[in-house]
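To assess whether ligand presence alters the predicted conformation, the chain was also submitted together with guanosine-5'-monophosphate. Input:
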Amino acid sequence: MNHRAGCIFCKIADGKAPSEIVYQDDTIVAFRDINPGAPVHVIIIPRIHISSLTEVTTKHRELMGHLIEVANEIAKAEGIAERGYRLIANCGQDGRQVVPHIHFHLLGGQQLPNKLD
Ligand code: 5GP
Ligand code: ZN
């Protein structure tokens, strides 16, 4: 599955590290952020280890499209789809990406701040 040893999100995807999973299928896993920044804060990842947005290529087109579809479904299930939400991916040092396994933050449940961070 192209998992990377020592990667916390690969471990969560494999069920080898604890998390509160809210959705999973063959290719995507979503779980609650351990340090939530909003009433709803879900992390959505592909099961395969892709380091960051910059590693996404044409071969991931279906996977990335599916991930956004899943984010939409989770937003509905969490009750935030109607009022709105943010789906963001931090990339690299300037983007303040901390975990080097591509992930999208689904944030909502309140009006989110205007500030970038
Ligand atoms: P980044 O800054 O890389 O975009 O965000 C990483 C996010 O993953 C942070 O919001 C952080 O709280 C969350 N996170 C890091 N380690 C874990 C973990 O072991 N479990 C869960 N559920 N979330 C984590
Ligand atoms: Zn990984």
